[in-house]
DNA sequence: CCGAAGCCGTCCG
DNA sequence: ACGGCTTCGG
C-alpha cells in the first residue's frame, strides 16, 4: 500500500518513458503485483485448486516484453510475514473463506460469472505460486530473489547495491525506502512506464511554495510519508501528506509535530505514537534483506551501533535466519513462510526454454537452444551469478552485430544495445562476484585477496560489525525529544541515511547518490541530501551511456576501500557518481560539468559539476555531482526551516548518532568531514546564492524553460507543455503513425502468434511483440496526463 | 483546501 | 488486494 496520495502528489515529477529508453539496464521488478494481477486472470482455478499457469504466463509475458527492449528484469518476490504489518492475516483468511463458500455455491448453481466475482476475492498470492514463475525464470536465466520479508526492502537493497538500475513496482513505499529510480504503471500495450526519480524531488514543479521538497532529506521525506500514514503505523486521522508536509516544515521533528497536534487538541493521536513511529521507521531503515553476495541476511541499512537492536526490535524488522536457510528461501528452494522446503504445487509444469533468450541467443558462442543453459545451471554453484553469466561472448567486442534472435531487431534498430547489455551484465556479474568473494573471505576469515582493484580488503563481512559509525546523523531515525533543537544545521539532513547497503556491497552504479553520499563531504549547511542530486542526476538510462567503450570496465575500478579501525569493515565506494561513470575516465575523481552533458539524448543538460563557486571549491574540491539542490532555490524560508532539522535527535542518543543514514558507500572519513561542515555555520551566503543560481539553471535546462530540449524526452508532467512534449516524443518515435490510444484494442493474441511451452502454456512470440510494439508506439500520446 | 469513504477496474476472450 | 477517481464532509 504504500503511502496514500503520494503518487498523485508527485505527479509533477512523473516522467512517462518508453521502455526503449531503458535498453541496457537491469530493472528490478516487484513481482507481487504481476502475480496478483495474473492471478486475477485465473482466480477460479486458483480458488478451486485446479492447476493453472496463467499467472505464470502473465508474468513471463512481461519478462519477455522487457527483454525485448534489452532490459534485464530482476524479479523480486515477497517473502515471509513481517511483524510490523498488522496481524490482519486471520481476518483476511476468514474473508477469503467466506468468499470461497459463496463462490462455490454460486458455481454449483451454474452462475459462473457471479461465482467469479467471489473467487476473485479469495485469490491469494503464495510463495508456491511464485515458485512456478521461478521455474521459468531459471529456465530462461532471468535473475530473481525471494525476499526474506518484504520485497520493498529487498528491492531497495538491490538498487543501493548497484545490482539494478531501477525498480518496477506499483507501491509508492519504495520511494520511502529511499529508492532512486522507481517505475510505476508499466503499460505493456504502449510499452511505456511512469518514472519517478528521487533526484527530481527537488524540482520546483512540485510546488513553489506549497509542497516543495526542495531541501528535504530522505529522512524528512520519510517522516512526512509516515506521518500521513503507512503500513507499519496506526495513523493519525486527519493528517494526510499535505498536512504532514506543512507541520513538518514548521516543527521540524516528528516529536514536535506530535506535540503541536496534541496541543491543538483537535486530532487524536494514538497512544505511544512516537514509540510506534520510531519502531516503524526502523522497518524502513533496517528491515532484513538478503545479500546475494554474502548469501545471508543483512539489514537494509546497517544498524547504527552495530547490533544495537534489542530482541523485540530485531524481530520487528524481520528475524535473522540461518544463512543456509536464507539462501534457500532467496532462491526459491524453501518457503519463506513455513521455512520448509518449497512445495511444487504443479510438478507437471516444467518449463523449458524453447529458445534462448534474445540476449544470448545469437551470440555465436552460445548455443541457441536452451540446452546450454541447463547445463550452466547444473554446474554452477547456484546463485545469482548464473544470471549474469551469459556472456560467453568473445571478449568484449563492442560492436557485436546485433544479431538478435528472432525478431527482435528487425526493423528496430535497437539491437546494438545488445552489446551494451552484455557489458552491463558483465559489470553486474563482476559486482556479484566481488560480493561473493568477500563472502568467501568473510567466511574463511581469511584475509583476502588482494590484488586487484577491488582490492582486497579484508573484508570481513560486514560492516555491521564495526562498532562505530560515524556520523550519521542523518537518518536518524527518529527522534528523541530535545528541548531546544538547535537550529542550525542539521545534521540530519544530511543524509539520509543509508549506510552502505551491506557493508560489503559496493554500489557502484547507483547513481545517485545524491546527496548524501557523495563522497565528498558536502558541505551544505543545509544539508540535505537527497535533493542534491536532484538536478544533477536526471537519471540517465544507462543504456545511453553504454555505448561508451570505457563503460564496461569502469564501474569496478574506482573503489575506495576503507577499513575501520577494527579492520572489519570495508566500505567501498566509487569515486564518481555511478551514473555517469561511463563518461569519465575511471580514475577520475572529480567530475566536471562538461561531462554531464553528453547524454544520448542530448536534451538534458545537467548542471552537475558546475563549478559552483563556492562551496564546492572551498571544500576541496570534491566535485559535486550536480547542482546541489540542497540549497535550492529558494526560499529562504524553507531553507532556514529545514536547515534546522533535528539535530536534536542526534545528540541524545548514541544510537542515533551512529546511524548513518547514508546510502552509498560512504566514506567514513568524509562523513566526519561532513559533519564538521555541517556544524560550521557559516556558509557563505554568496556561495549559496551562486549555487542556487546554478541549480536554477540546471532546472531550466532540464525542463526546458525556453530552451530547446532537443530530443526532448518526456518531461515531468507538470512542466509546461507537457502535452506538446508528448506529441513530439511521439513524432520522434514514429512519425508515420498516430494511433489513438485505444485500450480496448488488444493485440491479436492468436494461437499462431504465441509460443507454446512444452506443457502447453503460452507466451507471446517475439514477433508478435515486435508487431505490437510497432503498432503501439504511436500511442504515446495516449498517456494520461493529468489534466 | 484536505482527508476519508466508496466505487471501479484489474484479466480474458 | 490496490491504486485511481469521485464524492462528501469539515
Ligand atoms: Mn509496501
From TrEMBL:
Gene3D superfamilies: 5' to 3' exonuclease, C-terminal subdomain, 5'-nuclease
One of the protein's GO biological processes: DNA repair
Keyword Magnesium: yes
Primary residence: nucleus
GO cellular component: nucleus
Domain XPG-I span(s) in chain numbering: 138-208
GO MF term set: 5'-3' exonuclease activity; 5'-flap endonuclease activity; DNA binding; metal ion binding
Endpoints of the signal sequence: none
UniProt region (Disordered), positions on chain: 86-112, 359-414, 447-553, 609-629, 708-758
SUPFAM superfamilies cross-referenced by the UniProt entry: 5' to 3' exonuclease, C-terminal subdomain, PIN domain-like
Domain (XPG N-terminal): residue spans on this chain: 1-99
Bias-annotated ranges (Polar residues): 501-513
Segments of skewed composition (Basic and acidic residues): 87-101
Subcellular location(s) per record: Nucleus
Keyword DNA damage: yes
Pfam families linked to this entry: XPG_I (PF00867), XPG_N (PF00752)
InterPro entries: 5-3_exonuclease_C_sf, HhH2, PIN-like_dom_sf, PIN-like_EXO1, XPG-I_dom, XPG/Rad2, XPG_CS, XPG_DNA_repair_N
Keywords (A to Z) from UniProt: DNA damage, DNA repair, Hydrolase, Magnesium, Metal-binding, Nuclease, Nucleus
Protein name: Uncharacterized protein
Source organism: Rickenella mellea
